Amino acid sequence: MTGGTMLEKLRAEVYEANLELVRRGLVLYTFGNASGIARERGLVVIKPSGTPYATMTPADMVVADLQGKVVEGALRPSSDLDTHLALYRAFPSIGGVVHTHSRHATAWAEACREVPCLGTTHADYFHGPIPVTAPLTTAEIEFDYEANTGLAIVRLIEGRDPLGCPAALVASHGPFCWGKSAEDAAYHAVIVEELAAMAWLAMGLNPAAVPIADALRDKHYFRKHGDKASYGQRS
Q: Which pick of 16, 57, 119, 212 has the fewest CB atoms within 10 Å?
């Protein structure tokens, strides 16, 4: 595959990931963004800033290098580009990043609370809570805000397998999700919103609800993840 064909394919994938956020009701108006990376070329494709989803095309996707320099595209990239880049630079296994302001996940972020693992549906996707970052300092907000947002996530996830914990809540802000591709990251954004909504409802029904037992959490998580996963069909 030539470099041009590779970027054309990635533009289409990132465009579809952005549209998936709309289809699943995770974004309003111009909220949110999705990106993907061509690791072999060190280039990231991301949604343009403030562009309505209804009029956006794959050709509108912006291409930037890992230092944030735009190398292709007539439009300005998403204002969250530097956050995405911090994640790509820190975690080589990540192939796509998504940010939304989906209602329930953002509510947990605004409360500065992690989403607890209260049941088996959550444990199917996260081996524990969906974590939340520490609040940014005044200096981090005033200087290089978007990059510092990414670094806050990196500090939170460091020491973990980022594909084993494919999302984080940024305190007072909202969820960032990632995966092996832009499509995968959008999938995780959908899952995070659903888990956040379930936890919200469960805590409303029983404010004293506690996290799932470790044995039940492990049983469900490792049925889908790791070398001994048994869920689904063998390829």
A: 57
